Each structure stands twice: as structure tokens, then as C-alpha cells.
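Record minuted for completeness.

…
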Amino acid sequence: MNNKSSAFKLPTYLTSLNRSYLVPFLFISLFVTMCVLISSTPVFAQTTKWLYVMTFPDGGKSYLRDEIKILPNRNKSGWQKIVKPNGSSLVILTEWDCPNRRLLMRQITPYTSEGVNSETAKPSPTWVQIIPDSMADRHYARVCLPAPPVKWARIIAPQTPLRQLPGSDSPIVRIAASGERFEIVPESEKSNWVNVVDPATQEDYWLLYKWFDTIEGEVPPKNQSAAVATPAVRKQKPQKANAQTVKIGKGRKRANR
């Protein structure tokens, strides 16, 4: 019996290429393969994201995951995130009893500013009433109440300063051009300083009323792609134990059952 080498051999069409072309050829092939794999990822997984909710006086921020589950008992379940000024954060699995305006924290996971998580805590199951005008109240409104019509701040000055916090002494974090549009956080409209959000990145800023005019409507602004518009409520799909999942976002009608 002839001994045949088991060593891996490149196909003839590759070995016939000049060595100077071989490495670029393999690199391009790998790149194309990765692009195909990325494009085949389900759209639902790609569009799930953290939605900005509010900024605390100390500069901390709160977010809400836009994927909300409707449980068999008709309560709603989803993730909240609180980012502290030092970059550390808390990710909280929460259950909302919408008709009775109360919540239950199922799980709390702390993260360092480097993104390292420590041991997850599971608090004792205690329902807590939601305090008006609190962070919990804002999250409750996003999850349980019909969303108000979305409003856009259209910049009217050539170079408009967008600040980190409300106030003329707050650091400028971005300069907006005339015509750019940002989503207005509804709860901030009562003040001279308005909180706005870039819907593509969920980065928030503060600016004075005099620097923009207001546009109402659900159509994405001209300087934003329709792919990053505020997510609409998706068709509810059965999950385990008859749970359902919906997408939330400002400016769209939410499922409220």
C-alpha cells in the first residue's frame, strides 16, 4: 500500500498563483465570508438596543432596553440600565404591574467602568409603588403608557452648541449644523433647556429653545436613516410559557394590555 501524506495541501488554483498575490487573495476571501455571516444575522437581533430615558442631576443616565416581554400574568418584563458618572453601571431585570403602577426588581447586575460584572444579586420579591416624577415613573411611562407623538428639534443656527447638561456653563460635547434634527425627550419640554437625543446613537444633549424649531411626526428626519428610526411595536410572537415580546419606542403606539 502506498503511503500518502496526510498534510494539508492548498488547491492547485491557489498554488499556481504568485506568492505576492496569495495573501491578499486569502484576506479578501475571509473578509467576504465575514460580511455574508454578518448580513445573515436576524434583523430583530441587530435592532435591539438601549433607549435613552433621562439624565440625573449628577450626570448619571438611565436607559431602557427596547425589547419588552408580556408575561402570562399580563405584567411586563424588561431591562433597565443606570450608568453612573464614573462609568460604572447597574443592569436591572424589572417586572411592571402596569394597572397598579408598581414594579418588582428581579435581578441586579453591577458592572465596573471597564465593563466587568460582579456577582448578580436577586433581591427579595417585593413590589414597590412607583413614585411620581421619578426615574421609575419615566420608565413606567415608556413601558406601560401610550407614547406621545414624536417631536424633532430642527437646528436653525449654523453652529449650535450641544451641551452635556442643562446650563450655559456645562461642557459643549457637540456642534450641530443648521438643519440637523434630534428627537426631543418629552419630559424636558417644560424647561428652557431641552433634552434631545440622536436616534442613531442614543447619545443625548441639551440645548436652548432659541436654537431650534419643532417638527412633529413619525417620519425619520432627513439627516437620519430610516433604519435607525424609533423602533415600532413588532408583531407579538409566542415565547416560552406563552410570553410575548414587543418593541417599544417614542412616537409609536405601544401594546398596552
